Structures are given as C-alpha cells and as structure tokens.
User: Fold this.
Amino acid sequence: MGKQGAGIKGSSKDDGPSWENDAVHKSYTWSGAVTNYLLWQPANGKRFIITDFWIVCTTATLITVFDNEDADNKRLVGGSFATNGGISAPNLRTPFKSQGVDRNLNLTTNGGSGYVTVLGYEDI
Assistant:
C-alpha cells in the first residue's frame, strides 16, 4: 500500500493509503426508506477503513450507517437529522475500521432524502 508513516494503524501517525492508488470514495443518494443498502463492499480478504464521511439530509430523516449488522457497537453514525441538516466528519482522528475482513458498510433510512459520502481505504 505504500504507507510512509509509523505503521501504527488508526493513530495520528497512520498516513493511510498511498492516495494516488488506494483511496476509496463511496457515495449514495437516497429518497425514501432504504433498508440495509450496500454502500461499500471491500475486496475479498480486505476490510474497509473510513477516514472521512459526510451526510447531508435534504429532508428530515433517521439514518444509520453501520458495519455489516445494525448494532450499537457497529455503527459509524445513527440518528435523526432535520431538513437541511447533516454531519461533516473529515479527518477522523481515530478511523472507523470494520470489525473484520469481508464485512460490508451498510445504510438504512426511515425515509426522507439526502446523500452520504465516505472516504477511506481497504486493508487486511
């Protein structure tokens, strides 16, 4: 992967991927209820690592973004957002890493509309 940092994953010393080759950018626009939408499926034998994410809600909605199963300890974010609300989380100090290889990042909404963007990379 061409990392130049201290090799300490998930720390402020982790340089992440070599951005010219390994960066992953996933976006999805929803309108209406969505259940367990597959937002990111890493390559076989890899896990996703999220370094930045944004959610913009054009109408009020409840949205959950999660690691494979929607459970408390597997959520990147879960909550209600007002019309024209959202969250901007660039440069996560502690990247959100899937709890194992071959796990997916999924999205569920109760309706409304908006979009989500995640940036990161895949690793073993």
